[in-house]
Amino acid sequence: MRTPDTSLDPRFSDPDAVPTPWSTAVDALATAQLCWLTTVRRDGRPHVTPLVAVALDDAVHFCSGPAEQKTLNLRHDPHVALLTGSTEWDRGLDVVLEGRAVRTTEQQVLRRLAGAWGEKWDGQWQFDVRDGAFRHADGGEALVFTVTPDRAFAFAKNPFGQTRYVF
């Protein structure tokens, strides 16, 4: 696991807060059932969508159909924010990654990721790998993207603490 420079921002943290370890933030991403992805449309407007993702090899991976809005957005601007967390004000941990979404096409990596998807969701997400993409049982194609963070943030609650990670 890459080790980022980690700092607690005292402006947004309780006096008794401590930085959230990067391993805790990674665990939150790895166990999240749902993430939200923000991409940028051609006209500059943000596009936010929920999706399932897999954390593996110091990155977070997601998939999208070739004609989906997020895929169209990534063709002209690969910068994304990917986040997960709790909807409760005073419990849980929210994690935000910032980076570039890069298409993953290597067959061996895709096979590992397909296995990770199936394992994480007890077989509910099953993909075959062919021609540099995932294939659904109905033959539909899903492109796979990898986000390796440039920076990330963890927002701890109770005590409140904002941790910044720079890679």
UniProtKB/TrEMBL annotation:
The yes or no answer to whether the keyword Oxidoreductase is present is yes
Checking SUPFAM superfamilies in the record gives: FMN-binding split barrel
> Pfam families attached here?
PNPOx_N
Keywords assigned by UniProt, alphabetized: Oxidoreductase
What InterPro entries would the database entry show? F420H2_bilvrd_red/Heme_oxyg (IPR052019), Pyridox_Oxase_N (IPR011576), Split_barrel_FMN-bd (IPR012349)
Q: Which residues form the Pyridoxamine 5'-phosphate oxidase N-terminal domain?
A: 26-123
Entry annotated with the keyword Cytoplasm: no
Protein name from the UniProt record: Pyridoxamine 5'-phosphate oxidase family protein
> What's the source species' lineage?
Bacteria, Bacillati, Actinomycetota, Actinomycetes, Micrococcales
